[in-house]
Amino acid sequence: MDKITFAIITLSDKGFQGQRDDTSSQVIRDIISDMGEVIYYEILPDDLVLIKEKLIELTNKVDVILTTGGTGLAPRDVTPEATLSVIEREIRGMSEAMRLEGLKKTKHAMLSRGVCGQRGKTLIINLPGSPKGASESLLAIKEVIPHAVEKIKGSGRDCAISD
After folding, report:
1. Least C-beta-crowded within 10 Å: which of 37, 46, 59, 127?
2. What is the pTM of this model?
3. Which helix (H) or strand (E) holds 123?
4. Which CATH class is domain 4-152?
């Protein structure tokens, strides 16, 4: 399979205003560096309309959009709502796997509302905003991302049965 193209979008009011360093995006970059290339990166505020517009804009321009932030319970955490409003198919198993992995470390993982889904030929994955949460969640699903991208692009290759 060809190298995967990624977009990383950090959702943070403070990050957008320059009041907080975006450390999660670098952790994400490190984890996916062997899978492909990040060809788009931006920090956006926690704004439902802006997030939706950006997800739509990036659809079919990258293979995978990784968002980080805005998945919790704070009033301005709207990343899952924005994602759900634009995806065509939800991929619940990926979201469940991320939460399950997080629960091994902290009960607070059950409060993450991140979702995963498909829009067009693009896979969209919501990751938590903390570097640790983003890392643990992404590592929980990393090995299935290439296969998911292949299937979304229309590969007829059979799914291999593995342990």
Report:
1. 37
2. 0.94
3. strand 122-127
4. alpha beta
